[in-house]
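Subject: Predicted fold for Xanthine dehydrogenase family protein molybdopterin-binding subunit, 758 residues

User T.R. writes:
Posting the sequence so we have a shared reference for the thread.
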Amino acid sequence: MRGTIRYTGDEANPPGTAFVGVHRSTAPHARIVAVHTEDALAIEGVLAVVTGRDLHEVLGDRIYTGPAFADQPCLAVDKTRFVGEAIAAVLATDPDIARAAADEIAVEYEELPPVYDIDDALRGEAFVHEELRPSSVFADLAHLHGVRGTNVNYEYRQILGDAAAERERAATTVSATTWAPPTHHVPIELPSTSAWVDSGRLEMLSTTQTPSYVRQTVSDLLDIPLSRVRIMTRPLGGSFGCKMYDRLEPLAAALAWTTGRRVRIDATREDAFLLTTRHGARVTGSMSADADGNIVAVTSDVRYDTGAFADVGPRIAAKSGLVAPGPYRIAAVDVRSRCIYTNKVSAGPFRGFGVPQVTWSHETLIDELARELGEDPYRFRRRHLLREGDIATVGTKMHSADFLTCIDEVTKAVGWDDPTPRGDGRWVHGKGVAVGMKAVLTPTIANATLNLNQDGSATLLISTVDMGQGSDTIMSQIVGEVLCLDSRRIHVVRADTDATPYDTITAGSRSTYHTGNAVRLVAEAMRSKLLGFAAERWGVPADELVLDAQGVVHEAKELRDSLPDLVRAKFGARGATVTTAENFTSWWVPYDHDTGLSEKVTEHWFAGAAAVRLAVDTWTGRIRTQHLAIAGDVGRAINPTLVEQQLTGAAIMGIGHTLFDEMVFDQGQITNATMLDYQLPSIKDLPEKLTPVIVESAHRDGPFGAKGVGETTILPIAPAYAGAVRDACGVRITTLPLTPERVLNHLADAADPGKAGR
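User M.O. replies:
I've generated the structure tokens; pasting them so everyone works from the same file.
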């Protein structure tokens, strides 16, 4: 807030920088017959125009990148697969010239049958890609190589018991089809990438959450060793998943490498809508209970619209599919989760990694089942929630996932048992509650290097990218705790692949646990090394020594050395540095091929809950939030202030998805891809009262018991609101967002059943 952070877009442009403008497709699915660049090249200030065919002639099929499938070209080569796909790039001396020249490019198309949505895709009358081409990143997809005649690029199944038979025997069954639309990430900072060649090396400064991944992608793209690729970052001004994997970086690298120029690509707000989205998801599910009210069966058919490119959609389909039944004790489940191509903007990771979409489904079902059975939605959930040591439906034992305390705390905060206001005839009041469950990304790798300076300060090298979540603060606190140092004397180096070690990804709220463990280990290794220095100097066993805030001490012999004196004595010089390096790698047991079950599917669970009291204006359909309470089990809160901010931020984003956010498509084209048309919550839409609750159930393997938190409270927001609307108005809405128009339509349908089905 003080304006002291320097972002990627703040970096000055050296003389000779070529700015890039992109010409984008106007056809959702078409063969590219010709690209006419003459008018663009004639504009003063234009340095070059590059097409996909130009790049393909130099790089071959390497221009097709992607974490799951090699299906995403830097620039479209033979055909375009969505309205807005990059067709050609203009390099110019000025960004305005580059964009104006891009508009002068003309493309001839031969139209192909479009696949507009998941229904079209599953009919199989047209195909977005001729065949599946798994990338080398996810080895478990290799068996799909060469598969043709399908728009389904991945399917996850979870089978436990016989759900069909249990449902047949059940006393009560409820069913629902829910829809969560594609949404945009809307970070304040827009994507930006600069790339240049220096002494035969490709160097890049980019707004990326995944510098290690980008380094590997660029190495493969240009067919050069990793040692000849350098990726640098700055702190990110928000991301929520939109700055991961293959965004602007492959194009910037290809242009810099093939033209020999330093290039810079700055996405406009309109461009950002075309780079990635959250997956739209339709879930058809059912939940059944026996005569005693026990949940005996859950079925879930999850369909993710991944758009033109798979991106990380297969992982989302699996990681969300495994929790599609919900955090409950259930006798039998049948889950089918699919990632499906369509001719729309590609979908990718978004805060929650697909789990908010399935939480919307399972919490809708359990809420309706409780009401059907005449039970309180809070107490019915509580009775069935998984507890410590229980086995989740996916086959993994539960640990450090205190759903009970989360749901108890949020309902207590909003006064669940207090009378609900009667309303005045126009405004009606209701309360709702929901629970969310998510697995952290597993397996992943984190490395850390620590340099202790002779003056007792330290430099920590990690590739976790701080994008507002406070990771630099947390990591310096972990080092400070282990080495008894003031965390303000610990500097965290920004991700730079020439200096900072490999890290899988900054996403999925994995950093506190994974990178935090690597940082804890590297700090402990440093402590051991320092104790060894003192033991050697004093001729005593290292296990008799203690490190405290004043240095190393041997209490029995009354020996003490400060860290500066100890290091100087060891090396005989001021300014000396002691270095340690450590790795932390989480592990899992891969899903069974037939059942989708695993005895260890994740390193840790996220557990969260939300309860809300709200009022609905039956004249306008407007929803007013009176009190929202949110809770998350964070293992241990290393920095309670940052934890509360993460819980609150995720919940507010969830409010946006619940009441406002929606990307609208018409024949494959986004119709609201500007901030004038895309609705977001304002300060006036926030709850009158918002209560964050930190729940601590220490994780046995977390750094000081801690685990991730950033996604926890986005999961249950939408179903909690929908449950409260159901309580207030008596209508069950299963399509997001809960706009005033949608609320009014459901109220009208309830008043006149003949109009139902809007």
